[in-house]
Design brief:
Blueprint lengths: L8 H14 L3 H8 L1 H10 L7 E4 L8 H8 L4 E6 L2 H14 L4 E5 L7 H11 L4 E7 L8 H11 E12 L6 H10 L7 H6 L3 E8 L5 E7 L18
Parallel strand pairs: 1-2, 1-4, 2-3, 4-5
Antiparallel strand pairs: 5-7, 6-7
Bound molecules: S-adenosylmethionine.
S-adenosylmethionine (SAM) binds next to helix 1.
């Protein structure tokens, strides 16, 4: 039986096939339209040298050069995507630029949770994520609420999470076009959901009809005096 959670398995497979096919030209379509939103979103991650940034889905790695402005080849960028074609483009960029701090992972976003990260940490000597960027993914991914919850669970307390995506009236011509080209939805209450989960919540809109939003927030958490163990407020 097919699972019907925000789209069938078949719809997901079709979307990945589509991204595999367009991976070679994706950057031409994507780069210019999201330029301002992307710049703002990445500033909101508040990345500093040596930190770990998780980008889900990372696609062709369009963000990497912007992350590197802050990281300067230090720390770690974990780029996760389910399309082999998109990841090949990301790998090409990584090699071309001589970046040494990028780890590309072919995985389904629905599998990225705390348990996945514990396993990942064992083989990568990596035990923290300081910032999570979900750009133009959650509108098309299944189980998007779980994915947001899992991203927050992986984040360090006081870590930053930023989402860049679409929110439009479904019936408008622009909405129909965005749905067709992006193979996702356009009216999921993504930012409304994030708002209930983080502190320092901020929302900014971009593009025609303010259709693109960037939301950012900080994982709630406190650092107990005298040691390095952080706990999220909910655990106390
Ligand atoms: C519109 S692109 C966005 C890529 C990149 N974040 C950007 O802003 O350019 C959507 C991406 O989601 C990926 N994707 C779709 N379903 C996925 C899944 N279940 N798990 C991981 N990645 C997925 C696609 O392969 C594609 O690279």
């Amino acid at each position: 039986m097919e699972t019907k959670i925000d789209g069938t398995k078949k719809e997901q497979e079709k979307a990945i096939e589509y991204y595999d096919k367009i991976s070679g030209i994706y950057d031409f379509i994507s780069n210019w339209y999201y330029k301002n939103a992307r710049k703002y979103a990445i500033e909101k991650l508040k990345i500093v040298k040596g930190q770990t940034v998780l980008n889900l889905p990372c696609g062709t790695g369009v963000n990497f050069k912007h992350f590197q402005k802050y990281l300067k080849n230090s720390g770690l960028i974990i780029g996760i995507d389910l399309s082999k074609g998109m990841l090949e483009q990301a790998e090409r960029k990584t090699k071309k630029n001589g970046w040494m701090n990028i780890d590309l992972v072919l995985e389904n976003a629905t599998k990225i949770d705390q348990i996945w990260f514990e396993e990942y940490s064992k083989s990568n000597e990596q035990n923290k994520v300081d910032a999570v960027f979900c750009d133009l993914g959650l509108s098309g991914l299944p189980e998007w609420q779980n994915i947001i919850d899992n991203m927050i669970s992986i984040l360090e307390p006081n870590g930053r999470i930023v989402i860049l995506d679409w929110y439009l009236e479904k019936s408008s011509p622009l909405a129909k076009f965005v749905k067709w080209i992006g193979k996702g939805e356009v009216d999921r209450p993504l930012w409304q959901y994030l708002k209930t989960k983080v502190s320092d919540f901020e929302l900014e809109k971009f593009g025609f009809f303010d259709g693109i939003f960037v939301v950012s927030g900080t994982k709630k958490g406190i650092k107990p005096a005298g040691n390095n163990v952080y706990k999220s407020l909910g655990e106390w």
